[in-house]
């Protein structure tokens, strides 16, 4: 309620209020211009916007008996209907202080159900549990807890030192594992390259051998095609020459082999045609 002139006043858009007549609730009022009877009526307003509230740092003990320091933040909003606005005035005297005490108590309980290791990785779970618990507990006060966040989880110094050493050792172990993996992969690559080289060399040798075999085959085919008939002819005349070697001779002419028989000093030509 920002403006009040005598019995005239204005309720802002983000406010809701109640009017009491002779100390007794008489009506619920919404934003706008209103009137009240001096000395007879009293107007009380409530800011229905979300209120940001810090949960002060406190020491809590985990399930495994480790003392840690935690704090948080929450957002609380009075409900805007008549029934709940009445509760914020008549069911609780100082709702902000009450909500804060309730939050600290429930925060200790949440961490008491978890070990240190669980606490360090369960921020979201703890926040969600707190939000639901506080929202249920404050409903009778006309309030709604819309969100809770855990800002700090601070273990003792010796625990943090041990955790740091453990983390360092884990990082070194991972680095060594990565190095070993890299070496193994490099070795496998070298092995694969050697196999590929050997297979390539073997393939080349096979191809060379196949080439040579093909060449020999071609030579044989050529010999069979072009020299077999002449070889037979030559063999025939070699036999003739052998049988008549004392009285014959072989004359090579442009037409082939021409055998001649010598009778005395007179040569007689033998026809080699059939």
Fold blueprint:
Elements: E1 3-5, E2 8-11, E3 15-21, E4 24-29, E5 32-35, E6 41-47, E7 51-61, E8 67-78, H1 82-90, H2 95-112, H3 116-120, H4 123-137, E9 143-154, H5 157-226, H6 228-243, E10 248-253, E11 256-263, E12 266-269
Antiparallel strand pairs: 1-2, 2-5, 3-4, 3-6, 7-8, 8-9, 10-11, 11-12
Can you walk me through this structure?
There is one protein chain. The protein has 274 residues and is of the alpha+beta class. It folds into four domains: 45 residues, no CATH class; 105 residues, Band 7 domain (Tetrahydropterin Synthase, Chain A), CATH 3.30.479.30; 70 residues; 41 residues, no CATH class. The chain contains six helices and twelve strands. The strands form four sheets. The chain has a three-stranded antiparallel β-sheet with strand order 1-2-5, with no helix packed on it. It has a three-stranded antiparallel β-sheet with strand order 4-3-6, covered by helices on one side. Helix 2 packs across helix 4.
């Amino acid at each position: 309620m920002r403006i009040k002139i005598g019995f005239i006043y204005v309720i802002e858009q983000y406010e809701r209020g109640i009017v009491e007549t002779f100390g007794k609730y008489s009506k619920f009022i919404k934003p706008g211009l209103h009137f009240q009877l001096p000395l007879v009526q009293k107007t009380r307003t409530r800011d229905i916007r979300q209120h940001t509230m810090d949960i002060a740092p406190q020491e809590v003990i985990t399930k495994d008996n480790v003392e840690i320091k935690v704090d948080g933040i929450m957002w609380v909003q009075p409900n805007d209907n008549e029934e709940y606005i009445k509760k914020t005035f008549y069911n609780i005297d100082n709702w902000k202080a009450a909500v804060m005490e309730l939050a600290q108590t429930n925060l200790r309980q949440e961490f008491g159900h978890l070990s240190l290791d669980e606490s360090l990785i369960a921020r979201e779970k703890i926040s969600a549990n707190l939000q639901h618990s506080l929202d249920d507990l404050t409903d009778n006060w006309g309030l709604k807890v819309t969100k809770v966040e855990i800002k700090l989880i601070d273990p003792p110094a010796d625990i943090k030192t041990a955790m740091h050493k453990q983390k360092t050792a884990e990082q070194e172990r991972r680095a060594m594992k990565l190095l070993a993996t890299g070496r193994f992969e490099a070795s496998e690559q070298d092995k694969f390259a050697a196999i590929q080289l050997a297979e390539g060399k073997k393939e080349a040798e096979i191809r060379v051998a196949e080439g040579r075999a093909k060449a020999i085959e071609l030579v044989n085919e050529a010999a069979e095609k072009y020299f077999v008939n002449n070889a037979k002819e030559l063999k025939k005349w070699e036999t003739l020459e052998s049988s008549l070697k004392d009285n014959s001779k072989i004359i090579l002419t442009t037409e082939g082999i021409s055998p001649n028989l010598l009778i005395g000093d007179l040569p007689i030509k033998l026809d080699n045609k059939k």
